[in-house]
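Anyone up for a design puzzle?
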C-alpha cells in the first residue's frame, strides 16, 4: 500500500510541475483501479483465467484508494479519464457496475479486450497511441509491464503487484 501511495503521490507532483498540458488519465482496472484481493485469497493466490472469469462475473472488488485519489484529482482538474482493461468484452456491464460501486462514477471511455488473438499489451498500446494522436499527454497507470510497454504516454506509472504477473498467468504471448 505504501509503495502505491508513493507512486501516486509522485504522479500528482509531476502533474503539478507541468500545468497547462492537455493531460488524459489512462487506468488499468484489475489491481490498479480495483483490488481483487478477495479472489486471490479465495484461490490461495493461485491464478487462472477460468477462476478469474468466474470471479469477474460476480462484480466484486474494492477500489485501490490511492488510485481513486488520482482519479478524483484528474477529474477535479478537468482531465479526461479512460479505462483500458484486459477484461473480455463479455464482462463490460459487470465491470462498469463494479467501477461505479467503488466511486469511479464517470469516465470518457472504457475499452475491453475484444479478441484474445491480439496480445493484451498490443491492444492497450494501440488504444493509447490513438488517444495520443488526438493531442493528449497520457498519464498511464497499471500494475503490469504489459499495461505500459510501447510508449505513447508522457508518464507511465508502474504500480506494484506482488501477487501475479500476467505474462506468466494468462498467456505466454503477452
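Challenge accepted. My sequence:
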Amino acid at each position: 500500500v505504501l509503495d502505491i501511495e508513493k507512486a501516486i503521490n509522485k504522479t500528482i507532483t509531476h502533474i503539478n510541475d507541468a500545468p497547462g498540458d492537455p493531460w488524459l488519465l489512462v487506468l488499468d482496472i484489475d489491481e490498479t483501479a480495483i483490488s481483487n484481493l478477495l479472489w486471490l485469497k479465495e484461490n490461495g493466490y493461485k491464478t487462472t483465467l477460468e477462476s478469474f472469469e468466474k470471479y469477474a462475473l460476480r462484480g466484486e472488488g474494492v477500489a485501490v484508494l490511492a488510485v481513486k485519489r488520482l482519479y478524483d484529482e484528474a477529474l477535479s482538474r478537468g482531465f479526461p479519464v479512460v479505462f483500458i482493461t484486459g477484461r473480455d468484452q463479455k464482462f463490460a456491464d459487470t465491470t462498469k457496475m463494479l467501477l461505479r460501486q467503488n466511486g469511479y462514477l464517470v469516465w470518457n471511455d472504457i475499452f475491453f479486450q475484444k479478441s484474445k488473438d491480439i496480445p493484451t499489451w498490443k491492444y492497450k498500446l494501440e488504444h493509447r497511441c490513438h488517444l495520443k494522436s488526438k493531442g493528449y499527454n497520457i498519464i498511464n497507470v497499471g500494475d503490469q509491464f504489459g499495461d505500459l510497454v510501447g510508449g505513447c504516454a508522457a508518464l507511465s506509472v508502474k504500480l506494484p503487484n506482488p501477487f501475479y504477473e500476467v505474462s506468466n498467468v494468462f498467456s505466454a504471448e503477452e
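A detail worth pointing out: The beta strands are 23-27, 34-35, 62-63, 81-88, 109-113, 137-142, 155-158.
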